Amino acid sequence: MRQGQITIGLFDSGVGGLSVLRQLESHFATRGEAQSYRFLYLGDTARLPYGNRSSQEIKTFVEEIVAWLSNKGADQIVMACNTSAALAYSTACAQSKVPVYDLIKPTAEHLTRALQGKQKIGVLATNSTVKSQAFSKAIKEFSNDCEVVEIGCPELVGIVESGQINSEETKKTLSKYASQLEKAGVDSVVLGCTHYPFLAGPLSALLPSHVQLVDPAALMVRSLSKNKTSTAALNETARDVEIKKEIYVTGPLADFATSAEICLGQAPGTIYGITIQDLQAARTEALQANLPVADISGALS
Ligand code: DGL
Prior knowledge:
Elements: E1 5-12, H1 18-31, E2 36-43, H2 55-71, E3 76-79, H3 82-95, E4 100-101, H4 104-114, E5 119-125, H5 127-132, H6 134-142, E6 146-152, H7 156-161, H8 168-184, E7 188-191, H9 200-204, E8 212-214, H10 216-222, H11 231-238, E9 242-249, H12 253-264, E10 271-273, H13 276-290, H14 297-300
Helix pairs in contact: 1-10, 2-3, 2-13, 4-6, 4-10
Bound molecules: D-glutamic acid.
């Protein structure tokens, strides 16, 4: 029998967070728990890219989005945007009344646990994430044996959003980063922006075969994998897993639908439009609700 519904809110600047949503979907679909999951996805495409923005801007966006997802009924929030997590994870936690998850800490934890001895880890991410050194700092918390090389890749988000994943031009851009990684002698490469897993195929073809690509979302769902059941039990309960998706975007719906379909290899689900004003109003409302209540006791006496 199916239990109640869990609503999971996720957000990113664009289609990148769909690489996280697909990992969560397949994780819950195969975990073997009779449950209904409702995914609420917000792609803030009107303000994309986030990767060169200041930490103050990102903090404000994150406050708006967390407030909006909470109003829509999110029971949990996943920051499917590493730039937002790198610059505003604590802002999100302070704003949210429900648990907030990011990908950076689980990546650092699982990766360092899996790696043996001295290792050189490459991290490809947006300029703002690299500047924050969020991945290096998180990895160092778990291991002093790892050397981390972070490289900002400002062009890659635009490439994914425009659906040019397999073009010759893209290959040229990726070759530049592949040779930097090779020169640095890395053993593994963290795809530290959620758009980049959609470029994993062409990128891995340009790297030496021993270099392992790491999708942080795949590591994050591993932290949720404590309850794997047997295949028989999975088949038994799979019928009772229900997954619903609602996708909201602040920019043009058709553009998002096209890039999402190229990235996922299938239509992403129903897409609705919302405005930046909707997000801003949610933040204003949340801030007003959190204002200390004025002491009016004197006025009544
Ligand atoms: N996908 C996001 C990230 O993980 C943001 C990319 C951008 O908008 O620059 O960093």
